[in-house]
Each structure stands twice: as C-alpha cells, then as structure tokens.
Amino acid sequence: MADETYVQFELTACRELMANHPESLRIREQVEALEDAMPDKPGVVVSFCRTIIETTCKTILTDRGITPEPGWEAPKLISETTKYLHLGRHEDGTVDARLKDGTEKLVRGVNSIIDGIMTIRNDHGSAAHGADAYAPMLDARYAEIVARATDAVVGLMFKTHMGGANKDLLKRFRYGDYKNFDEWIDGEIDPYVVLDTPLIASEALFKTDMNAYRAALVQFRQDQQDEAVEEAQGAGGAS
C-alpha cells in the first residue's frame, strides 16, 4: 500500500508538452497512466516509460515527414529521430561545433538511459515475458528513477524538435507551434464573435484552411528573414 505521505508523482516535461499541445491525447493517456501507477505498480511505470519515448520519437519523425517503420523499437527510433534535431545549432542558424559535440555526447547518454529502461522493462515491467508469478516486485524507487530519466529524455528531444521548427517548417504541425505567427495574425485582425463566442483569427484560419495558413506562414517567415538580412546589412554599413 502506498505511503499516506506520498505526493502525487508528475512528469514535469511531459506535462509541459501536454499543456502546449492539449490535443495530444495519446501521450496524455500514457503519462496519466504512468503517474497513477506510482508508487504501487512499478512494473506498469517502466512499461509506460518505453512507450512514452517511442510515442515521442514517432511524433517528431512524423512532424518532419518521416514515416517510422513498424519494426523500429526505442533504440532505432531515437537514433533516427536525433538525425533531424539539428543538435548544436544556435538561434541564428549557426552551428557551434563544441556545443554539437557536447550535445551528441548527451544524446549517447540518453541512449544508455533507454537501454537501461528497456532492460528493466523486460525484466520487471508489467509486460515482462515469462516472469515467475512469485518473483519480487521492482522497488518503486527504481521505477521513479526510470520515470524521471524518461521525462528528461522527452523534454530534451521535444524542446529541441520545436526549437528547430523555427528554422525548418515542419511537414506536420499543430496550431500553436508557431506562436509568433499566430500573434501577428491576431494583432492584425480582431476576434469575430459568433453567438457570444469569440473566434480567434489565427485559430479559425488554421482549422478552416490549412493550405492558406501554411502559405501565409511561409511568407511571414520569409519576410522575417528578409528583415533580418536588411538589419544586418544596415548595421554593417553603419559601422
């Protein structure tokens, strides 16, 4: 039975992802199931850890127009996903070699974490194959360590993914992924009110005409790049 003083366990990075993308029902279901399983069902916890990582990788790959193969499991998925995360790149698009090297080492550490998650999951997860019915349960402390590591992996990967989206337009994206563009539209057009319900211009455009939204987003980003180039040239001339 759980300790009465136990504080409800939460995956901080996953919760942030859910808040930014409330329509991500699949990962919400997985995260909530994992959190509810702590600390009484450690085997369920480690099983969902691998599932959450796989879901995150598949989401990132699909966002970038890559179709994961059915047989890809966590190690292969994360290996393929990191190819598209542009590790070590700064906001201005330049690549810092030392930052890239350090980040790649961090990702290799992430791979080690995933290997550990899979080993524990295979031996102690709720889906462990051929487990003795009387085998001792995994200590909840180990399950929590694995869950925290999973949360860190998801946070690192998805934040890097969305950071890169500011440079390379995603093949698939959700409303809210490009907040500066949405704010620009909404600053130009006041909300419409229909039956006492305000309709936000950017959201209405996204949901009713995705092609128009995407075309306007591409033009907006091009205009931003042109302005940045002009400012840089002006600053160079002034010096």
Give an overview of the whole structure.
- This protein is mostly helical.
- The chain folds into 2 domains: 12-165; 179-238, no CATH class.
- The protein is 64% helix and 3% strand.
- The chain has 9 helices and 2 strands; from the N terminus they run αααααααββαα.
- The chain has a two-stranded antiparallel ribbon.
- A hairpin with a 2-residue loop joins strand 1 and strand 2.
- Helix 3 (42-63) runs parallel beside helix 6 (140-165) and helix 8 (201-208) packs across helix 9.
- The chain is globular and about 60 Å long.
Task: Explain briefly what this protein structure is.
By secondary structure, the protein is mainly alpha-helical.
Overall residue-averaged pLDDT value: 78
How many domains, as an integer?
2
| Number of alpha- plus pi-helical segments | 9
Low-confidence stretches: none
Shape: globular
In what range is the share of β-strand residues? under 5%
Q: Summarize the biggest pleated sheet.
A: 2 strands, antiparallel
Tell me the structural class. mainly alpha
Q: What's the count of strands?
A: 2
Which H/E pattern describes the elements?
Answer: HHHHHHHEEHH
Helix content: 55-70%
Distance between the termini: 70 Å
Cα-atom Rg, whole angstroms?
22 Å
Strand arrangement across the biggest beta sheet: 1-2
Features:
globular, single chain, 9 helices, mainly alpha, 239 residues, two-stranded antiparallel sheet
